[in-house]
Amino acid sequence: MKFRFQKLGSIFVCIFYNLFFSFVSLEAITIEVFIPLCDGKSLVCGKGKAGDPRSLEENLYWGAAFGAETFFKRNSNFKILEIKERKLDSPILRTLIIEKKRKQNETYTKLIIYAYAGDKIDNALLDFLNASSGKSPADIIVWSGHNRLMDRIPPKLQSQSAKTVAVLACESEKYFDSVLRSIGAKPIVLTKTFMAPEAYLLEALTETVSKFGAEDKKSIRSAMIRSYAKYQKISLKAAGSVFSKLE
User: Fold this and answer.
1) How far is it, in rounded angstroms, from Cα 226 to Cα 200?
2) Is the pTM of this model over 0.85?
3) Residues 6+ apart with CB under 8 A from 89
4) How far apart are CA 58 and CA 68, in angstroms?
5) How far apart are CA 128 and CA 53, in angstroms?
6) SS3 sequence, the chain?
7) Tens digit of pLDDT for each residue in 37-47?
């Protein structure tokens, strides 16, 4: 009888572990996002303080409805773990650490989002490119904001190691693709047209890589198209023209 109970106990333990590890993955994905706030002196950002390069509460890319902090605070599928305020003289005004609430068979995924002062966009660009060349432990590096390479030549960098990268900015394939590949980075999202780099695209990217990983470019592109069509209220065909097909 004792042996029978021990055997049944072992069976229950095995079942528990199988169920537990089917839900909880030992792996994790970290996505690092660089967002220079919209600067009305050089861009059309909208009314009021939407173009104030240091207004976290009202800036188009941070405090507006589809700005990063506002969007994720209202999103029940995500949880803000920590908010770090600016250190003295730092170009980064605020940092958010956010986790995606994990569902069965998903990989635990965390976002680290930096709000750069819009008038410090060159600092943001350099930090993004350095991270893309391997100077960051994150799994995926994302730029979301104005395409600064439309205005200036890229800084000189040396390749460190391959990183998976997404650039949510107008015509990012034209301006960023060769630069990223020259430093060993692997783009998974680039754009072909002018577009709005808003937070629902970060949501779509995060949800897709948590399900399928960062190598499934087809699923990632499809998710970006669906999300962009939904929030911009355009057809899937029109949204599909925005995002590059990457091999």
Assistant:
1) 10
2) yes
3) none
4) 11
5) 18
6) CHHHHHHHHHHHHHHHHHHHHHHCCCCEEEEEEEEECCCCCCCCCCCHHHHCCCCCCCCCCCCCCCCHHHHHHCCCCEEEEEEEECCCCCCEEEEEEEEECCCCCCCEEEEEEEEECHHHHHHHHHHHHHHHCCCCCCCEEEEECCCHHHCCCCCCCCCCCCCEEEEECCCHHHHHHHHHHHCCCEEEECECCCCCCCHHHHHHHHHHHHHHCCCCHHHHHHHHHHHHHHHHCCCHHHHHCCECCCC
7) 999 998 999 99
Token pair, residue 94, equals: 């605020």
Residue with the two structure tokens 């600092």:
123
Q: For residue range 114-148, list pLDDT tens digits in order.
A: 999 999 999 999 999 999 999 999 999 999 999 99
By DSSP bridging, strand 108-116 and strand 28-36 are: parallel
Pairing of strands 140-144, 186-189: unpaired
Measured distance CA(77)–CA(87) in Å, rounded: 29
* Phi, psi (deg, nearest 5) at residue 43: -135, 160
